[in-house]
């Protein structure tokens, strides 16, 4: 029942290498460009952003419809950034649409996207009782070997086994940022994410992070802006763009620290799904002046709660009949 990790996945250690300078506009811009470039298979992509010549990259997964990752390494091969592609859907069409939606709805819904008529349920963890869900079933669903979180681990293993003394950072946009933060919690390396839906629920389902440390002490910084309804956790309900697109994005609480540009209150933006795009973060925020869009303070989210109307119960697995309550 509990055979969900291989032995290497227990090797969590506090990060002892270099940390990204999250107060540096140049550093965050470079990481945002890497997160953006994860949407393209190589430098020939129309949306690719040119990087400093010091960075070389290799790609993973662009020949199929699963997780896609760009790995950036410096010339000295002592720093690697693993950038995970986000969701391709709607204004971001692509061959991974279906699997992206599956992963989004598993990670960021309260219970398998149930009840959710715009798209099929993504797991069978709803117990049949009103607002009741089997938490063991949810955990095992997220840990399925064919889903992005598990597959992205293989990329990390390839890098760390080839360069065991290197510093590794994770980054990503949207769904890719959620995967990046979960990898950070799993292995202890830093993550800088952009416009990620609330990922605290997904982390709790995976029993991450290890017990004994407050979550804000983990090296995870999540950048977003207040005009983005997905990052703000308000892209839900029948009238939302997410709902109409078949996405059950029901969470808003983030792990680690959030670094938020108040683009609505300070810059006069309106809430719009277009503000979720990584290109908006790069062109309309990071490439602007510090006086217009100052680098935000990064703070832990306190007094934040997701899925409060749901009850999560323990269960045992019966491989012929599914999950049953204890």
Automatic annotation (TrEMBL):
> What does the record say about its membrane topology?
Single-pass type II membrane protein
What's this protein's name? triacylglycerol lipase
Sorted alphabetically, the Gene Ontology cellular component annotations on this record are:
multivesicular body membrane; vacuolar lumen
Subcellular location as annotated? Endosome, Multivesicular body membrane; Prevacuolar compartment membrane
Example GO BP: neutral lipid catabolic process
The organism is Umbelopsis ramanniana AG
Q: Which family does it belong to?
A: Belongs to the AB hydrolase superfamily. Lipase family.
Would you say which domain of life the source belongs to? Eukaryota
Q: Which InterPro entries match?
A: AB_hydrolase_fold, ATG15_Lipase
Which EC number(s) are documented for this chain?
3.1.1.3
- Keyword vocabulary terms for this entry: Autophagy, Endosome, Glycoprotein, Hydrolase, Lipid degradation, Lipid metabolism, Membrane, Signal-anchor, Transmembrane, Transmembrane helix
């Amino acid at each position: 029942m509990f055979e969900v990790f291989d032995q290497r996945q227990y090797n969590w250690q506090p990060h002892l290498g270099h940390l990204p300078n999250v107060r540096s506009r140049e550093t965050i811009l470079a990481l945002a460009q890497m997160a953006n470039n994860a949407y393209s298979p190589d430098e020939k992509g129309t949306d690719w952003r040119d990087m400093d010549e010091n960075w070389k990259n290799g790609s993973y997964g662009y020949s199929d419809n699963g997780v896609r990752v760009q790995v950036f390494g410096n010339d000295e091969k002592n720093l690697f950034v693993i950038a995970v592609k986000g969701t391709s859907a709607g204004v971001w069409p692509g061959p991974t649409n279906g699997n992206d939606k599956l992963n989004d709805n598993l990670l960021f819904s309260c219970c398998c996207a149930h009840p959710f008529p715009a798209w099929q349920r993504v797991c069978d963890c709803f117990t049949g009782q009103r607002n009741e869900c089997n938490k063991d079933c949810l955990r095992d669903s997220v840990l399925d070997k064919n889903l992005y979180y598990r597959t992205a681990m293989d990329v990390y293993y390839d890098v760390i086994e080839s360069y065991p003394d290197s510093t590794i950072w994770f980054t990503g946009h949207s769904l890719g940022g959620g995967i990046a933060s979960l990898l950070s919690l799993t292995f202890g390396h830093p993550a800088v994410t952009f416009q990620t839906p609330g990922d605290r629920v997904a982390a709790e389902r995976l029993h991450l992070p290890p017990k004994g440390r407050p979550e804000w002490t983990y090296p995870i910084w999540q950048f977003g802006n207040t005009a983005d309804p997905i990052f703000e956790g308000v892209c839900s309900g029948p009238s939302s763009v997410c709902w109409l697109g078949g996405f059950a994005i029901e969470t808003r609480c983030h792990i680690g620290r959030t670094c938020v540009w108040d683009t609505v209150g300070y810059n006069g933006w309106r809430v719009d799904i277009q503000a979720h795009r990584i290109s908006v973060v790069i062109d309309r925020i990071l490439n602007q002046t510090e006086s217009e869009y100052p680098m935000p303070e990064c703070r832990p989210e306190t007094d934040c709660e997701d899925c409060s109307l749901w009850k999560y119960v323990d269960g045992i697995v019966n491989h012929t009949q599914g999950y049953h309550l204890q």
